[in-house]
Structures are given as structure tokens and as C-alpha cells.
Write a structure and sequence with these properties.
By secondary structure, the chain is an alpha/beta fold. It is built from 9 helices and 6 strands, in the order H-E-H-E-H-E-H-E-H-E-H-E-H-H-H. The radius of gyration is 16 Å and the shape is globular.
Length: 235
């Protein structure tokens, strides 16, 4: 598969550092984030701390420290509440476009604004809605009990992230039975590929490049599948 080639050790030697950002209660050893850290070169976790009692600004500060300690380009790979920590980091830090974060994979963000949500998730509401200053995929599942597909698509629109339909795999975590999550690796490989392609491209060409990439993805099967789920009820 193409993503296997894109993620091989020799090709990634000069690539961005991949920082994984778990959500509430951290990611256990069976979680795809943990498995990626063990197998993908230059992939490491941001230790946010306070895993079962998160504090939004503390998490944002931990992300900021990890990004700047990298001293190289970074791709953020966030799951669940970690996605909202990334959005708040971008809101507070207002980084230059593509510097130092050159891409993000945001997976299964929960709906933190709905009535009756866990108070620990509600601490991250209301969400920032400004477009993210870096290319991003937002991957969501149609039967994630933490967020409806429609809400996830709305977030992708607000953040100007390319929406990626992940199928019916729950909260896209260790309980989903996806092991190394090949689909997520494909999305990560695409972020890496587009970063490599952007090297030497001027800022004025960047918007056109992102639009072409988004246009390609709207023709892919999982995007069409997601479009058919727009009628899904809120969860």
C-alpha cells in the first residue's frame, strides 16, 4: 500500500516530528496512537498530564512546549479531546501558516458543546471556530457516541480541515478493533506527502495547493459515504 512506502524509515529521516496527543484518560497500549509510537519513526507522545481531570490551558501549554522543543516542523496527531486541545493551541498561539506545525490529523473529536456532556469535556467549550493555520484531516466515525457525524463535519468545515469518513468504528480507539488503524496511517502518509511536495512552494501558492488536495478527497469513496450520512441524528 502507498502509505507503507510513505512511512518507511529512510523516507522519514528528514520529515517532521510526529507528536501524538491523546484525549481524556490517555491512550492505552492497545490504542493505535500507542502502536504508532512503537512502530513509526520519530513519533512520540505529548505528555499532557492530568489525564483524568484535564485543564484546558495546561494541556495547551504542554502542546506549546512540545512543539517548540522539537526545533523542527511538526505534525500533530490528536485523538478525542486532544483535538480540541490542538484547536485551542492554534487559537491562543496564532502560529504562522505552516510554521512550526505543518499538518494535523484530528481523530474523533467529541461534541463538547452538547447538553449533558461530561463536565471534564465541557471545560473545552465553547470551541474556537477559526480556520486552522495548517493543513488538516478530521476523521470521524458514523457511530461514535461522543459526536454525531454531522457535528464532526461541521467542525471540519469551521476549521477548514478535509473531512475523512472512517466508517462505523465507534470512537476510533482501542475498543474499535482497528489495531494499527491502516486508514489513519494513509491519512498521515498523505500529510507527509503534501508536506514534501510543498517544499519550495511560495505562500501565495499554498491556498491553491490545499484546494486541489481537498478537491481530490471529495471524490474519494469515504467522502461520498459520509455525505450520505448527513441525515444522521445527533448523539
Amino acid at each position: 500500500m502507498a502509505h507503507t512506502h510513505e512511512l518507511d524509515t529512510t523516507r522519514m529521516a528528514e520529515d517532521p516530528l510526529i507528536l501524538t496527543i491523546p484525549g481524556l484518560n490517555n491512550s492505552n497500549p492497545q490504542h493505535w496512537q500507542s502502536r504508532w509510537e512503537a512502530t513509526i519513526p520519530d513519533c512520540e507522545r505529548v505528555e499532557l498530564g492530568m489525564w483524568d481531570d484535564p485543564h484546558r490551558n495546561t494541556w495547551v501549554n504542554k502542546i506549546n512546549l512540545a512543539v517548540h522543543r522539537a526545533r523542527r516542523p511538526v505534525i500533530l496527531v490528536a485523538h478525542s479531546l486532544g483535538c480540541h486541545a490542538v484547536a485551542w493551541w492554534a487559537e491562543y498561539e496564532q502560529p504562522a501558516h505552516g510554521n512550526p506545525v505543518v499538518g494535523a490529523l484530528l481523530v474523533a473529536p467529541p461534541d463538547v458543546e452538547r447538553d449533558g456532556v461530561d463536565e471534564r469535556l465541557a471545560r473545552f467549550a465553547p470551541l474556537p471556530r477559526r480556520p486552522l493555520p495548517f493543513p488538516a484531516f478530521l476523521a470521524a466515525s458514523e457511530n461514535d457516541h461522543y459526536c454525531s457525524l454531522r457535528t464532526a463535519r461541521g467542525l471540519a468545515t469551521d476549521w477548514e480541515a478535509t473531512f475523512a469518513y472512517a466508517g462505523s468504528v465507534g470512537h476510533i480507539n482501542a475498543d474499535s478493533g482497528i489495531e494499527d488503524w491502516a486508514f489513519g496511517q494513509l491519512l498521515l502518509a498523505q500529510l507527509l506527502r503534501e508536506h514534501r511536495n510543498r517544499q519550495g512552494i511560495g505562500r501565495e501558492d499554498e491556498t491553491a495547493t490545499r484546494r486541489r488536495a481537498a478537491a481530490r478527497y471529495t471524490r474519494l469513496p469515504w467522502i461520498h459515504s459520509a455525505a450520505r450520512q448527513d441525515h444522521a441524528a445527533e448523539v
